[in-house]
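quick one before i forget lol
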Amino acid sequence: MNDIKKQFQKRASDYNSYTKWLKDEELFRLCTLPLRDYPNNAKCLDIGGGTGWLAYKDYKESGRKWTVVDISEDMGNIVPNEIEFICSKAESIPLPDESFDFIIIRSVLEYTEVDKVLLEVKRLLKEEGYFVLAQKVMDGYITDINLILKLEQLRNPLKKNLGFMSNINKSVSKTNLRILNSRTYTQNYSISYDKWLKRNGTIPEANQKELENIINNLEVDVSSRTGLKLIDNNLHSKLTWGIITCHKNSYVNPRINIVVSMIVEKTLNDKKYIVLQKRKYLYTEPHYYNVWELPQGKVEKDETIFETAKRELFEETGLNLFGSLLPNSIETINDITLNQSDVLTTVFAKGGMNYLGVCVLVKAEGEFETGIQDTEPQWVEVGSLKNKLENERFFPLNIPMIKKYIEYVG
């Protein structure tokens, strides 16, 4: 532990600029997804949070109260005053049980006793709390794993190899934390070659020479697979992250996302058409790239079904929704507004997250504005839908909706 502490004391002054993964916006987004549904008074903990960059970024955006725990006092001296700092090892943090709504750990377990740290997370987490673990994994380097392990060992012999995503999942599962989501994210980055070799004076000269020899003699196919390339004295590489989102309880009340899907219908020359579009951006689910889907989106706070439909239709296609093709009404009873809308069908999708899909039949006006969300909306003749469903890929939530529509129109 003393050697690890000394290493991070040395690295503290240059940590934010040297550690390229630290400020990656997509990594930050993926690691803080559970916070989207948390109130601004939620209490959050970053274990091994170093200089407090992540905690301070969320604090500035939300005002949430953050605590950072790290073994390095020098790291703590850089943590902004708005963030509470506690100097402690991750295995035994001097705080009461069930203190936090949200806990995050990024690239820390390789320096710790993993099982003890995960049990400490469970102790500190409130009963309905969430935990996000982000660790660099070897899943992106299966062919060249020996090379990557060699580089890691030369650069930082204090770091343990945690292996593949499956290993980390097993470690988390042993604590009985409920895994809600497990994904990988590959980050491309570049760093000054000189900084990479010396690492704030923590890499011995003999190791630096061996590292230089390896990098200067990389075969072309190895460089292509690993992303390791030396260009203009900058080393380009990639990191594969395993990101796991957990809940403390083995059972939680289901959090259901309501999705409004639209079948936008028009008639031209006695033929009916509806809008379909292709998923043209990777989301966090690349296996759904380029599949057919209906215009759709989640209901946001205080929106009615048709307010969501109107907003999402315009955002994704440029069309303006101007009415439902099924009955709807609004009435007020005892100061409560009731918006009753007939829907074509509803679909409950159970998976990594639960979705209640509500399918509405609407009409719209205007022209497509392609590129608004990188979709490719188009009018598709209703008579061709059955053949498309049988022979082309569709987003799973929409398949029963379109089948119901085909049945509806006869």
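fyi Residues 2-247 form a domain with the Rossmann fold fold (CATH 3.40.50.150).
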